Amino acid sequence: MDCGGKRSATPPSGGVKTRKFHDANGRKRRERTGASRRLPDEHGSVMRTLQGKRRLMLELRALSAQRASLEALLKHPDTRVRTLAQGALYQREDGRDLPLIASPLDDSVATFPDLHGTASSGGGSRLSDFESGQMVARVARAMLRPYLSAAGFGMSEDYAKLKPAKFAELCRTAFQTYWARRRERSRCARWLMVKLMRATRQTSSAHPEYHEDTQRVLAEINALPAVERAWTMFFDHQG
Fold this sequence. Notes:
Elements: H1 18-33, H2 42-63, H3 67-73, H4 79-92, H5 98-102, E1 114-115, E2 131-132, H6 136-150, H7 164-180, H8 189-200, H9 211-222, H10 226-238
Antiparallel strand pairs: 1-2
Helix pairs in contact: 1-2, 1-4, 2-4, 3-4, 4-6, 6-7, 8-9, 8-10
């Protein structure tokens, strides 16, 4: 998808303890390197890394209720802590948080590697087949992309061929235009579309493991006033 620093001795304002983020930070590093003594083989390293990613998503979701503290952590000196704060904000699935998620669009510092599928013909079994370097700005773009795409601001593959500075400028301009039309909204049909897409993992059939997430979003849609509910369902069917 497209779109290290030191620990701080003083925790930022808010309820989130930076220790939680540093714990997740350290755990992420250990899982990424596959340093476990119990499963020294590369395949075991890959599996632990992917399992760790799933655990991290659950932890970020648990922290996502503390918006003010997460906003403060976006200014933390440790790049990885800033990235984890971005992730927790993304887990909130609240369109009103998009300006916070977009704030590092110019941040070109390296952060956690991107975990992804492998293009290897053999399926890949080495950790290096599943990860690549990325900057904080790329994480921000990846988180903004579903919202921009749902509103018709799709980033074509040609954009990725541009020089990084030009690409970043286009991303900033697209988001500024997008947000200017939505800054006064408390909710938006397209935001709910993104929620539903994330809940179903973009699958056409109902997977039992996604049932709870999907029902949560459908309940939110059903609770809307009749006219808003109809428009939301219309947009969803239109894709």
